Amino acid sequence: MIQRVYQQSEDYIRVEKAIRFIEENFRSQPNLDQIAESIHLSRFHVTRLFKRWAGISPTQFLQFLTLEYTKQKLAESTSIFETALEAGLSGSSRLHDLFVTFESMTPGEFKKQGAGLKISYGFNYSPFGECLLALTERGICHMGFVETGEAPLALEQLKQRWPGAIFTENQKLTEPVVEQLFRPTGTRESHPFHLYLKGTNFQINVWKALLTIPEGWMVSYQDIATLIGNPKAFRAVASAVAVNPVGYLIPCHRVIAKSGKIHKYRWGSSRKKALLGWEAARTG
User: Fold this and answer.
1) Inter-axis angle of helices 43-54 and 2-24, nearest 10
2) C-alpha 37, offset from chain centre
3) Mean pLDDT of the chain
4) Of 241, 252, 256, 280, which is the active-site residue?
5) Residue 267: is it exposed, middle or buried by C-beta count within 10 angstroms (0-12/13-18/19+)?
6) pTM score, whole prediction
7) pLDDT-based confidence at 237, cuts 50/70/90?
8) Is 252 a residue of the active site?
9) Strand 129-136 and strand 118-126: pairing?
């Protein structure tokens, strides 16, 4: 299993480069040969790369990132969200509460800035490159993707968020959690992930709303604002989404612009596109 995830992580580096090439040359609409050349592979090998990483061809994968596709998914998701609103946030959140439970810091704990809290962390491979996972006895407090060579910066930023905590590196503890995190949804064990998060009341409500977005869906910032009962607060929602401390499990990557454009992601727009395309391939 570890070898497979390592291969996915290595493949992702080239997949991301291909997506970046497409982003930088979107006006000229590069063909498959040009995309392959941009990452120094043949047409045959780039096809094999995408099929190994995403399970589909690069052409199929790129179809999931077109404006026509994202607009269609937004329309479908908005329609379903409107139905879910009749049940309220607690009702719609049942989509995910079988494998994610949620706990936020109390005001007193927030004020202490994690003083005395023991945090174990580890850098691990994922299908989207290296990631940094941090665990407490009360649950996952951080999961973020790491750019090549930026592990020290990622760790320093984590420590700044929990200035009073005691940090211990423990990759053996974090590795099986990451492995379980990226399993296909249908094969996850019934054992849920528990999150322990630090944020304002508004941020917590937004992050809780994000947990209602199933894999393969895309929603707008306005959809989330409406879901939390404050439809005019979509800019504040965007700010809360931008500082989500637990990537992938709290699926902020599934929130896109109302126009259908995929951008503005804490760990890069290319990775956001990779996440959405990968999930669409698994659920399509």
Assistant:
1) 120
2) 28
3) 89
4) 252
5) buried
6) 0.91
7) very high
8) yes
9) antiparallel
